[in-house]
Amino acid sequence: MAKESFKIIESAYGKAGVKILHVSKQGSVHTIRELEVETSLTLNNHKDYERGDNSDIIATDTQKNTVYILAKQYGISSPEEFGLILANHFISKYPWVVKAKVTLSAHPWQRVTDTAGRPHNHAFVSTPLSVRVASVLLIRGQMPVVSAGIRNLRVLKTTQSAFVNFVSDEYRSLPDFKDRLFSTIVTADWTYGKINQELDFDSAFSTAHASVLEVFAGPADKGIFSPSVQNSQFLTQKMILEKIPQVEQISISMPNVHYFGFDLSKFSRIPGLEGKCSGDVYLPVDKPSGQITSTLARGMITSKL
Fold first, then answer.
1. Statement: residue 300 has pLDDT above 90
2. Would you say 296 and 230 are in contact if contact means Cβ atoms under 8 Å apart?
3. Residue 73 — pLDDT band, cuts 50, 70, 90?
4. 1, 136, 158, 265: which could join 83 in a potential S-S bond, CB 3.0 to 4.6 Å?
5. How far, in Å, CA of 214 to CA of 219, rounded?
6. What is the arithmetic mean of pLDDT over 2-21?
């Protein structure tokens, strides 16, 4: 009778939730970067799992210490650059590490503007408009894969959005909407196909972030029409690929954040509620919600609804 055998096919370990604030002082002008870092290492053996032999383990506490030490030595110019520094360190220092993954999220700080409109030298204000994220994956003998993204970018517009002419059958209850509120929470992830001297990670992130808002909102006075979340999503991805040539592909998730008109018809004894009054009243409804996601790459499109 054959003896059943088992094999570890995947393993990794690391440190999560490593928070760091780096302050760079160039004369009277100070610059800050606040990150939360997670490291993950894969070794060329499994003796720690199979035999309890810890001789090749780089302790997660050591990985945590490495984040602070390398920040002190090299600074933090951008989340992506610092992720590359960390991943290269783990691969170059420890020959038995075959894969290093570093994920980072950046707390959004902006300089305080004084009464004369000047950016402050050393005072900052937290501006949680969205969260910037980055990831570096380095496999021994291969080029690093650098990704970046946006989290929790919540947007809303009160007009210039429609949803009509979709499938009408015995299961449908939703009417056509020729003019509706459009709100979503944007999650975006893009992968850089090439890392070269022309690539500025901070500038690329700003361009991608601005592109999301440009396609969603349009010009301040007139806006821009959206026939569907799907179409707005595609146009956003296309603009980012056109503006940032180093980006190879981009995935975006845009769930519907619903605001339904509140039914005032039951309050018929109160005059004037059926008219314009002070404006329109909506009820926020977070669940259930539509989920719209797609990935646009150079030369191909895959989507999932």
1. no
2. no
3. very high
4. 136
5. 8
6. 95
Please report which confidence band the pLDDT of residue 305 belongs to, taking 50, 70 and 90 as the band edges.
low
Place of tokens 């290492």: 41
**Could you give the residue numbers annotated as active site?**
15, 60, 258
* DSSP string for the chain: -PPP--------EEEEEEEEEEEEEETTEEEEEEEEEEEEEEES--HHHHH---TT---HHHHHHHHHHHHHHH--S-HHHHHHHHHHHHHHH-TTEEEEEEEEEE--EEEEE-TTSPEEEEEEEE-TT-EEEEEEEEETTS--EEEEEEEEEEEEESSSB-B-S---STT--PPPBSS--EEEEEEEEEEES---TT--HHHHHHHHHHHHHHHHH-STTT---BS-HHHHHHHHHHHHHHH-TTEEEEEEE--B-EEEEP--TT-TTSTTTTS-TT---EEEE-SS----EEEEETTEEEEE-
**How many whole angstroms separate alpha carbon 38 and alpha carbon 64?**
9
Tokens of 284: 């926020």
Share of the chain above pLDDT 90, in %: 91
CA separation, residue 121 to residues 24, 95, 206, 215 (Å): 11, 43, 21, 33
For 294, other C-beta atoms within 10 Å of its C-beta total 18
